[in-house]
Specification:
With about 240 residues, this protein is of the alpha/beta class. It contains nine helices and six strands, in the order αααααααβββααβββ.
Length: about 240
């Protein structure tokens, strides 16, 4: 992991400045990288990121954070997961905030200087890192099929971690869970079914599959039609 920490240090020290030609404070940029790391796999706006980077006597403005994020995106360090906008039968209002991800989730671990023991003691954050890892893997595989990834959330609180959609209109909603316990899988499957029930199939078509991706376990299809896949089963 030390080499990833060195990579992050080089990004904030020289890479952004070399690319933009604009001098910056590496300490402030590192605070933004760390804020994205703390908020990985979540919907967080510029105001929240700026607030998260506050230090005594040195508050970053939204514009500064936006410029830093833009530079990091151009260097292929961060990559947002944008909202999915399906045709719905209901009047649910869609949330429009993207999720924050690194192109490699190990950058988050390196930026926060955390370690395996700390991650095991914070399973909620470990789950968010796992979700980001799945986004990374699916983006690679989706690119081979001219597909894009997005996420879904509406004003009722219903959220789908990932939606895969090809240019031909084929789409697959995906829920990501770190464990493989029956109760956790049941909850994820119920979420997928609730989401699909809202979609207008006349305009969107039926989903090609409903996926729950887990950290462990084996592949199988449930009686409700939801397919359960461990990360080791993923492929192009």
């Amino acid at each position: 992991m030390s080499y990833v920490r060195d990579y992050v240090a080089e990004i904030v020290r020289t890479d952004v400045e070399n690319m933009t030609g604009v001098r910056h404070d590496p300490t402030r940029l590192m605070r933004v990288v760390q804020s994205v790391a703390r908020n990985i796999s979540t919907e967080v706006n510029l105001t929240s990121l700026a607030r998260d980077t506050e230090e005594a006597g040195d508050d970053l403005q939204n514009k500064t954070v936006a410029n830093y994020l833009s530079s990091l995106a151009r260097l292929f360090v961060v990559e947002e997961l944008h909202p999915f906008s399906p045709h719905l039968r209901s009047r649910a209002r869609l949330r429009r905030t993207p999720k924050q991800h690194f192109t490699d989730p190990s950058i988050a671990v390196a930026a926060l200087r955390t370690n395996p023991n700390q991650l095991l003691n914070d399973l909620n954050y470990l789950g968010l890192l796992f979700e980001s890892l799945i986004v990374h893997e699916l983006r690679v595989y989706a690119s081979l099929h001219d597909a894009e990834l997005s996420h879904y959330r509406d004003n009722t609180g219903l959220e789908i971690d990932i939606v895969i959609r090809t240019v031909s209109g084929t789409w697959i909603p995906v829920e990501v869970i770190l464990g493989s316990g029956d109760a956790t899988i049941d909850a994820a499957a119920a979420n997928l079914l609730k989401f699909v029930d809202k979609v207008d199939f006349d305009r969107m078509g039926q989903p090609a599959n409903l996926l729950v991706i887990t950290g462990t376990g084996y592949s199988y299809q449930r009686e409700d039609g939801v397919t359960v896949l461990p990360i080791t089963s993923l492929g192009p």
